[in-house]
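ARCHIVE CARD
CATEGORY: sequence design from structure
SOURCE FIELD: tokenized fold
FIELD CONTENT:
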């Protein structure tokens, strides 16, 4: 039986960008994803045409830890739990993402496997942009591609800085606890 540990949520998975999520309009939700900000109306219109749509039932896996990464997911409706399994198969919940959040952006820039599993925690509707479609878009519209990659760098550096701050705090608390023993 899998042991479940509750820990503080991972800041890497946190919604640090507070994407506007109070709109049911898919166009509006996607427009507010940090990766696609500052695109011209024409470029955004072409990017929007790349979206695929998926629906998931509660407890249905969107992807598994270890699966090939090949898409960015935008939560239009519902919520998703991000879970990771340790080497001893301990389940750790890293985050719960909601409407307006996005996940899987690393799959757009590398060919690596998924670092965690994503599971629908309610009836969930997603918009999906596949890596191959985005690559073709960026070849066709290189200036938009540069903007998306700049935005990607911003997203990843923001998450890395937050993770570094959290790690430093955790290390401080650990060392303080060790001194008290």
């Amino acid at each position: 039986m899998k042991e479940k540990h509750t820990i503080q949520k991972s800041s890497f998975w946190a919604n640090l960008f507070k994407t506007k999520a109070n709109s049911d309009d898919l166009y509006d939700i996607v427009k507010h994803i940090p990766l696609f900000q500052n695109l011209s109306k024409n470029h955004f219109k072409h990017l929007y045409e790349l979206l695929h749509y998926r629906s998931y039932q509660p407890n249905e896996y969107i992807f598994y830890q270890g699966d090939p990464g090949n898409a960015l997911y935008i939560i239009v409706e519902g919520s998703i739990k991000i879970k990771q399994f340790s080497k001893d198969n301990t389940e750790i919940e890293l985050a719960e993402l909601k409407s307006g959040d996005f996940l899987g952006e690393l799959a757009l820039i590398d060919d690596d496997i998924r670092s965690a599993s994503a599971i629908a925690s309610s009836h969930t509707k997603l918009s999906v942009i596949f890596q191959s479609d985005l690559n073709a878009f960026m070849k066709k519209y290189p200036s938009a591609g540069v903007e998306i990659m700049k935005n990607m760098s911003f997203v990843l550096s923001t998450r890395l800085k937050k993770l570094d701050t959290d790690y430093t705090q955790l290390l401080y608390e650990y060392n303080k606890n060790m001194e008290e023993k």
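CARD ANNOTATION: The beta strands are 4-5, 52-56, 61-63, 71-77, 79-85, 91-98, 102-103, 117-120, 124-130. The first strand starts at residue 4 and ends at 5.
SHELF: design records, drawer C
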